[in-house]
Write a structure and sequence with these properties.
flat
């Protein structure tokens, strides 16, 4: 009888360890997907911004894009007019090209010049603001899209937004 209890205790510990590993892997997978989506949304926002600047297209690009993406990918969520407009807003909040992405774009020989646009848009941005914006972008990859949008809409001060992002990550808000 003693051996059975010992085995059950070992199995309980074994099962608890397996469950912990599964939950950890699920969290890591969700964070990875979230990061890729936010990078995609930033890139879409950048492309819309650049095409509006270079061609003079107005706001009609967003409804057309939402309609065409819905037709092409009917099963996908997240490409409504409202969310595409938020992608543009997200890019406009953080137009500074993060270093890893800038190097990737150079390798891809992208026809758009995000650095030039970022400079054009940020003539009045201080170096300190640029560093905070870069930090904010890096932190934005670690929190859900909805949290990013809420912070952009509600918190205009970059330092205050930085505090909220760090708190979201630290406390799991």
């Amino acid at each position: 009888m003693k051996n059975i209890n010992l085995n059950l205790r070992n199995y309980s510990s074994f099962l608890r360890e397996i469950k912990t590993k599964i939950k950890t892997a699920q969290i890591k997978a969700n964070l990875s997907v979230n990061k890729e989506l936010i990078i995609l949304y930033w890139e879409i926002g950048k492309m819309i911004n650049l095409i509006q600047i270079s061609t003079g297209w107005g706001k009609k690009i967003i409804p057309n894009l939402a309609r065409d993406l819905k037709n092409e990918f009917p099963e996908l969520k997240g490409f409504s007019e409202r969310n595409i407009d938020r992608m543009l807003q997200f890019y406009n909040e953080y137009p500074i090209v993060p270093q890893p992405m800038a190097q990737l774009e150079k390798k891809q020989n992208n026809k758009f010049s995000p650095q030039a646009v970022a400079k054009l848009k940020n003539e009045k941005t201080t170096i300190k603001d640029s560093k905070i914006a870069e930090q904010l972008f890096q932190l934005s990859l670690k929190i859900p899209w909805g949290h990013n949008i809420l912070l952009i809409e509600k918190i205009k001060g970059l330092n205050e937004r930085l505090w909220y992002m760090m708190s979201i990550i630290q406390y799991g808000w």
